[in-house]
Amino acid sequence: GNAGGGGQPPGSGNPLLGGLEPGGGGEAAPEAMRIVPNPQNNALLIYATPQERDTIETTLRRLDILPLQVRIDAVIAEVTLNDALQYGTQFFFRTGEFNNVLTTAATATLASGFPGFVFAGRAATGAPLAISALQSVTDVRVLSSPQLMVLDNEPARLQVGSLVPYLTQSAQSTLTAGAPIVSSVSYRETGVIMEVTPRVNSGGLVTLDIAQEVSDVDPNTTTTGINSPTFLQRTVRSRVAVQDGQTIGLAGLIRDNVTRGNSGLPWLRSIPLLGSLFSQQDNRRQRTELLVLITPRVIHDQRDARALTEDLREQVLNAAAVQDQLNTLPRSGLPDPQARVRRRLGLER
C-alpha cells in the first residue's frame, strides 16, 4: 500500500482528514491520528504527527510484502498388489533397500492414524523414486499428475472426471389413470478430486489439509428399484506437516476387483449337465491400492518463482527432446501404423 502524511494539519473544513478544533483559551488542540483507506487506488490516507508517521511507515513496510505461494506437485497412481506387495505399498517402502529413503517422526509431523509415509530428499527425487521403485516390481497406472499454484492459507481444488447422472426418485399420480412418471435426477462428480489447503510457518514447515477422492461407476451393480448406478469411492482426509520440498505419500486405500466370466462353444455350453465340458469359468481377482504423492514447494519471492518456471520449462524441453529422438529412430520397410497420426499432429510431413 501507499502511505501519505503531513506534519501540517489541514483545515477544519476538510471532511476527510479533519483538522484542528479550537480549544479553550483560543489554542488549537491536535486531533487524534486518523487513517482512511482508499480501496480504488490501493492506498491509505494518513493524518498524523511526524513521529507517528515514521512508526506507521515502518509498520506498513513490514506488512506490505509479497504473499507466500505454494506450488503443489501431486502424483495420483493406482498400484497393482502382487506377491511382492501383498501387504501394501507402505510395508514395501518401510522394509528392505528402500527403508533409508523414509524419514522419521523427528522430521515430519503426521496426524494420528495417518495412512502414509514421508520421503526424505528434495522434490526432484521423492515422487519419481517412489514410482520407479514400484514399477520395478508391479504395474503402476498414473491416474493424474497435476501441478497447482495456490496462495498461502487458501484452498485449491482439482477435478479430473465427469458428472454422472443418477435417478434419485420416481413418482406417479394414483388419481389419474395413465399419468406420466415423474423422475428426479441428480448429478455426482466422479474421477480424481483433490482439495489441498497449505499453511506455511516462518521455519519453512508446510501444513497441508488434504482431501483426496477417487470415484467411479460400478458397471456391474445398480441400485435396486430405481435402476441407478452404484459408485465406487476411495477417500482419504488428513492433516500433515512436512518441510518445504519433502514428498509425502498417502497410501492404504486398497480395493478388491473380482471379475467373473464364462467362455465356451456357443449352444453346446448351454446343454444341461454336459455344458461344463464345452465351457470354462474365468474368475479373476485383482487387488489395487491408491497411492497419492504430494510435494509442496514454497515460493517466497520472484527469484523462487523464476526458478520454478525454469524447472517447468526444462521439463517441457526434455519432453520435446524425447519426441525428437523418437522421430529419428530408424524404421523398417514395414508400414508404420502411427505415421498417419504423426502427420495429423504435425510431427511428420
Radius of gyration computed on alpha carbons: 32 Å
What oligomeric state do these chains adopt?
A: single chain
Number of E-state strands: 16
**Mean pLDDT score:** 73
Low-confidence stretches: 1-24, 103-115
Residue share in helices?
A: 10-25%
Strand content: 35-45%
Shape: flat
Structural class estimated from helices and strands? alpha+beta
Distance from N terminus to C terminus (CA atoms, Å) equals 56 Å
Number of domains: 2
The biggest sheet, with number of strands, parallel, antiparallel or mixed sense and barrel status, is: 6 strands, antiparallel
Number of helices: 5
Folded structure, characterized:
There is one protein chain. With 349 residues, the chain is an alpha+beta fold. It folds into two domains: 2-63, no CATH class; 69-161 and 191-317, no CATH class. The chain is built from five helices and 16 strands. It has helices spanning 50-63, 89-93, 126-135, 302-327, 339-344, and strands at residues 2-4, 21-22, 28-29, 34-38, 43-47, 69-81, 109-110, 116-119, 140-144, 147-151, 156-172, 181-200, 205-223, 228-243, 247-264, 279-299. Strands 6, 8, 9, 10, 15 and 16 form a six-stranded antiparallel β-sheet that branches. It has a five-stranded antiparallel β-sheet with strand order 7-14-13-12-11, with no helix packed on it. The protein has a three-stranded mixed β-sheet with strand order 1-5-4, covered by helices on one side. Strand 12 (181-200) and strand 13 form a beta hairpin. The longest helix has 26 residues, at 302-327. The radius of gyration is 32 Å and the shape is flat.
